[in-house]
Amino acid sequence: MDRTDLKIISELQTNARVTVTELAARVGLSKTPCQVRMRRLEEEGYITGYTALVNQNKLGRNHIAFVQVTLSNTGSKALAAFNEAVVKIAAVEQCHMIAGGFDYLLKIRTTDMASYRMVLGEEVSALPHVQQTTTFVVMENVKDVGL
Prior knowledge:
Structural class: alpha+beta
Low-confidence stretches: none
Number of strands: 4
Strand content: 15-25%
Order of helices and strands: HHHEHEEHE
Number of helices: 5
Helix content: 25-40%
Shape: elongated
């Protein structure tokens, strides 16, 4: 991994639809060496995929809540059960295991407070070993990748 590889990654994070020719020009390479580097970055797992960034507000999914989750059991089997189940909840955009006063932090995106309450009550609270949740509702989205 050198500066050119980092430039390629940075450019692709800005616009993954850029042509290889344009990308090569931006990073100071010709087309073929740029393609070879991109393929190597993909094969080595530095680039794991390409995706479209979507304006969630236009889709009506502008209600964001962060939820602290405390588990009743933090043994390996309990954590694995929680991890396996939480990825199945479509409204959960992000799930992070936290070192601190609670166990997980979830980012949940829904259409409104009523749909959030449904997700919290019917899905999040039903996850394995959930003992307690605390919700923080986003009032304004100041910075978000892709918006």
